[in-house]
Design a protein that fits this description.
The protein is mainly beta. It is built from two helices and nine strands; from the N terminus they run βββαββββββα. The protein is 10% helix and 35% strand. It folds into two domains: 102 residues, Chitinase A, domain 3; 48 residues, Beta Barrel (Thrombin, subunit H), CATH 2.40.10.330. The longest helix is centred in the C-terminal third of the chain and has 9 residues.
Length: 170
Amino acid sequence: MIEIGRRVGVLYEGRLEDGTVFDCSDWHKGNPLEFTIGNGMVIPGLEKAVADMSAYEKRTVTIPAREAYGERDERLIEHVPTADFPDADKLPVGQYIMLDLPGERRRLKVVSVDDREIVFDGNHELAGRDLTFDLEVVSILGETGTLVENEQHAEGCTCGCHRFKEQSRA
């Protein structure tokens, strides 16, 4: 178990239900995603899964939509009169745009544009989707920024952690 406040390095590959890869760390080059447990910088289900791992552990987890980008919310579908939007004909249908609204900046998908209205979708593109991640914790940093050794494994375990420790000391 990784304590709140520890900074971790994680190699990952994220896949959709059909196996399509939607995101990954620079897995093959060994460049991990780094974040601090408890800071909420990654989706809740991913943070929870990583916090339940040990150094050098590999695991595949499926994160339900509610613990990832949330369920789709139809209240985030907005219909705007085309007449109220300058240059509506130039909007990239099917693409996301950043829209400055009074008091906020929002990322919206342009669903459709016609003579009467523009339809925007404010849902995250992965909302409503369960996500599967292959994870590998490659580093855990202590409060001083030093590598925390994995003290949970007995000498002679076969997970490979001793090999990684030896490489990191070389």
